């Protein structure tokens, strides 16, 4: 989720995965998948940068969590993202 500011000055969090499009009328208009919209103070460049930063943080956490354990430690190795439960090659 990313933090944005409405034209009234109210700050709010928006799920960036639910953004359908961003319109550039004199203000920046965020249109959501359910057709709700928000007029925000941030520019398109700022919004896309915030989305990219958030996605990078999520990927960093994912990388840390899926690092394989040391095979000699006795702990089971983490499942790779391409393996599904019950699926064998």
Please state the structural category.
Answer: alpha+beta
Overall geometry? elongated
Count the helices. How many? Answer: 1
Separation of termini? Answer: 36 Å
Q: How confident overall, as mean pLDDT? A: 82
Keywords: Cell projection, Cilium, Flagellum
Protein name: Flagellar FlbD family protein
InterPro entries: SwrD-like
Task: Give the gist of this structure.
This protein is 25% helix and 26% strand.
Summarize the topology:
Elements: E1 2-5, E2 11-14, E3 19-24, E4 28-32, E5 37-40, H1 44-65
Antiparallel strand pairs: 1-2, 3-4, 4-5
Would you write up a description of this structure?
- The chain has 89 residues and is an alpha+beta fold.
- The chain has one domain.
- Helices cover 25% and strands 26% of the residues.
- It has one helix and five strands, in the order E-E-E-E-E-H.
- The chain has one helix spanning 44-65, and strands spanning 2-5, 11-14, 19-24, 28-32, 37-40.
- The strands form two sheets. The chain has a three-stranded antiparallel β-sheet with strand order 3-4-5, with no helix packed on it.
- Strand 1 (2-5) and strand 2 (11-14) form a beta hairpin.
- The protein is elongated and about 45 Å long.
- It starts with a strand and ends in a 24-residue tail after the last helix.
- The model has no long low-confidence stretch (mean pLDDT 82).
- Pfam families: FlbD.
- This is Flagellar FlbD family protein.
- Residues 69-89 are annotated as: Disordered.
- Keywords: Cell projection, Cilium, Flagellum.
């Amino acid at each position: 989720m990313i933090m944005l500011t409405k034209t009234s000055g109210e700050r709010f969090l928006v799920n960036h995965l639910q953004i359908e499009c961003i319109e550039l009328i004199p203000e920046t208009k965020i249109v959501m998948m359910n057709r709700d919209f928000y007029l925000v103070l941030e520019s398109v460049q700022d919004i896309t940068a915030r989305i990219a930063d958030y996605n990078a943080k999520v990927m960093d956490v994912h990388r840390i969590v899926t690092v394989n354990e040391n095979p000699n430690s006795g702990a089971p190795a983490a499942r790779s993202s391409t393996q599904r439960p019950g699926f064998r090659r």
